[in-house]
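tl;dr need the bound structure. longer version: we got a ligand (NDP) that a collaborator sent over and nobodys looked at where it sits. i said id run it. heres the input, straight from their email, havent touched it
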Amino acid sequence: ARAQIGVTGLAVMGRNVARNLARNGFTVAVHNRSPERTRSLVAEHGDEGTFVPGESMADFVASLERPRAVIVMVKAGAPTDAVIDELVPLLEEGDIIVDCGNAHFADTRRREEALRAQGLHFSGTGVSGGEEGALRGPSIMPGGSAESYAKLGPMFEKIAAQVDGVPCCMHVGPDGAGHFVKMVHNGIEYADMQLIAEAYDLLRAGLGAEPAEIAEIFRDWNNGELESFLIEITADVLAHTDAATGRAFVDIVQDRAEQKGTGRWTVQSALDLGIPITGIAEATFARSLSGHVDQREAARRAFPDAGEKWQVADRDAFIEDVRRALLASKIVAYAQGFDHIRAGSEEYDWDIDLGGTATIWRGGCIIRARFLNRIREAYDQQPDLSTLLVAPYFAEAVAAGVPSWRRVVGDATRAGVPTPAFSSSLAYFDALRAERLPAALIQGLRDNFGAHTYQRVDRDGSFHTTWAGDRAESPA
Ligand code: NDP
């Protein structure tokens, strides 16, 4: 039998995507640079469906029905280009290369353009959910041409996670749209995790609680509006005891957070587009800061005991304050992430469906959460929504949380507990809702030192004041 789709690159992710396809009844050609991986996949999982192993790339390509669809799941960067270069001479017009690796969307745009010129489709496809997701149903974010989606869609929608009978997969848009949305997904994941980490830190400092006790608080939160995969696994990690020492697991792990770089890409792109994704940026910088061990050591010595002693009077009220502040901060992070997607969509002409994006993140991926239904509803009701913050459900949750948010950030500041993401989200909220911003003064300074001109509140046009001379104003 001819294979309906092929997967090359059979490390954890590719192997599991291939198995997922086979388990769902598709005939899957499989290939890997070193053939041992191909052989072991068939030996260990051959009974799960129909695999067509190819020892060489040529055999692999020859086993595919036309138009051919080849998923590339190798290390991002140069290896992806190497595999594409090997594939291209073996393919024919109308065939489709799918890059399911974590590529930067700019690379995807470049590859798509080059392959389009050669008559091939290139679908840069974001896949989230890690190893387990790849096997049992990930969230899939395919970019590329509508023709390529006509072939890929039915297969991807079948192997994707399903929520209320709806697949966590949709055609995101042309060229780099899929990888862009995956990138912002990862950025939001950074923000979400930083906020959760700060909430834990606040509970620990404010209540003097042990990790196991805080695990219970998160477990309880997971029954409400905050219900999500990340909150659920936070409870698991906090409840875990280290077997070697008998101590709380979280206390034996070094406090230096690592990153593979998608958070950084998100922030870089947002800077280019002029979109203030402060939550994601703070989260990314917080990880960097945690890794600056020497500076942390020096500062710790220079400034011991910089805060007041924190004494929470009412335990339950404090927990509720932290929960509300977490929810409000999280809403800010998502509002910013969706602003970023909208800006990317406009800049690159992708026409991305924002509500649809929330829909395909409801299952399979790391940020899957109940709350995403509300985002979809918000965009369904008002597709041109200026910011998620003002959609009825979110506006209500934020308004209800504001006093808690201010108490938590204020108390943490006095006690010297760092809350970069909580506090910057609150600052973002206050800046957005401010009647007047001190940006007016900045305009004055820019005009003073650089004749950059300014606009007036009472008249149209641009103006300049001769600061060094008679201070007369003239139209610019
Ligand atoms: P790795 O990123 O570790 O890549 C290993 C695979 O790449 C192997 O199949 C390897 O072949 C192949 N490879 C490396 N260099 C070359 C080359 N020059 N030519 C041909 N093949 C090459 O594997 P993962 O499964 O972890 O990830 C695959 C992709 O999926 C990556 O882009 C990753 O970013 C992305 N991803 C990963 C997730 C995860 O949770 N791990 C989640 C979502 C996406 P060989 O066996 O011959 O060495």
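gonna send this back to them w/ a short note. Residues 273 and 344 are 7 Å apart (CA to CA).
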